[in-house]
Amino acid sequence: MKKLALASLLLLAPAAVYLAAKSKTAEPEAQKPAGMPSKEEFETWAKDLETRGIEVSAGLWDMQSGRLMQGWKEDQLLIPASTTKAVTTYAMLRTWKPEFTLDTELWGDLDGDTVKGDLTVKGNGDPFYANQHIWETAETLKKLGVKRITGAIRADQSAFDGQRYGTGWEDTTADVLPPIAPLSVNFNRDEQGKLVGDPSKLAEETIERIFVQDGIEVGHKPGGAAKTARIAVHTSPPLRFLVQDINKFSNNFMVEMLVKRFGNGSWAGGVRRVTEFYRTNFGLGPESMKLTDASGLSKENRLSAKTLAIVLRSAWNDFEVGPEYVASLKVQGGEPFRLKHKDANLARRLRVKSGYLSNARSLTGYLQMPDGKLRVFAVILNGDSKDEDLWAQISKWAN
Fold this sequence. Notes:
alpha+beta, D-tyrosyl-trna(Tyr) Deacylase, Chain: A
């Protein structure tokens, strides 16, 4: 996408889309809206954190004008943790569009009601291929008349390169690091919910089990097929659905699967495509973002509060994909699952993406003020912080 194309999209909020990027001056105290914490209160909050050895990048901007209302080192690049997903999911939505889907392909030699030899299942990066969808695949085969497979189920992982773990994941807790392969089932977790190290084995065993349960015989007889052709496909849910799961549940596995597909099977290529999207369309270069993965598991990632706010405000003003993006964020007081932070005064007034790693905590989102006006905000804390350190300032801005 060329810069001009996105610029034309954002004409409804011309240069202000960039949050008055050239201006670093917060709104004068004399113009402070009623109820807004004073400049002194805000700076005391930030300075107290820095006294404790915590780095701070934070800011609050007016949604309509893009004007910085309060900011503290809002340009400083820090480790963003899972708020990285707020950046990567918008780039993919904007590029692929919300209706984008991925096909898992079934290849073999179909002769009447029999697949002669092996049935090869080729993955293309569907991050949501789970038991229910495998059963749907079996039903598709049965509608084609398939009753038996004389060979075995084989996983084709050729759509991605051989890198299974993200760059920069070495300093992250191992039990949250999913292996990434283009054919992955049940998020690469076994029936007990534990991560597995061999996605191909899990996929082959799970697909065979469900096919057999659904009435398709798998014979494991030796001898390959004389010829193969694509027999059937299973299509993933649309990207709008996948992004909603990614951002509401902070699903690392799903977003990393998608970014590898975004890079035609290469992690580095996918991340590079994300950063190039922002460089080309927003003028955000290495001084504004440095990414090595899509989920924020890597502590090599760097974003600033200002960069996060630019992305969120631009998404809000993006009629084509903005509604799907905004709907993917958590709604304070409006989710069926319980959110960790509770504040009755913020119920349905706050849509957020949060992030947490050891010594990195972040929150970015949209805030509706009591008078109905909208704000966009971002806070990144690096150091030994606590949830209340972050939420204390959000609550002051909101209430």
